[in-house]
Amino acid sequence: MAKTAMIMNERALQAMFKAMDEVNQMLPKEQRLEKSVDTVVLGNQGTLDSLGLVNLIVAIEQKIEEEFGVTIIMTDEKIILEDDRPVKTIGTLAEDIGLILADKTNG
To answer: Please, what is the end-to-end C-alpha distance for the chain in angstroms?
Structure first.
């Protein structure tokens, strides 16, 4: 991964953790997401229901826009819907978003 993408990845991860904090406030204690790169958000091991996932996606998109001044739509960018990984963690999402942000901010 290029240095720019790695920096974007780390910044994206911090924005995502802020989004998780917002979503966790709406969830019962037993469903709250752990702030970890290994937290599964999409896949059989994920704890979010469909509404929780939508809330997380929207919160992430908003935090990314606040942090970077760049609009991403995770379904349009195919971050969520198309990938060779059947399980999505916060870490893999941050990697995908970091690459897109590196491209958008350098292009």
So the answer is: 17
Secondary structure of the chain as H, E, C letters: CCHHHHHHHHHHHHHHHHHHHHHHHHCCHHHCCCCCCCCEEECCCCCCCHHHHHHHHHHHHHHHHHHHCCCCCCCCCCCCCCCCCCCEEHHHHHHHHHHHHHHHHHC
Task: Report how far residue 65's alpha carbon sits from residue 75's, in angstroms, rounded to the nearest whole number.
Answer: 15
Kindly report the pTM of this predicted structure.
0.84
Question: Per residue in 65-90, pLDDT tens?
Answer: 999 999 988 877 667 666 666 668 89
Reported as a single tens digit per residue, the pLDDT across 84-107 is 666 688 988 888 888 788 777 775
d(Cα 102, Cα 107) in Å, to the nearest integer? Answer: 8
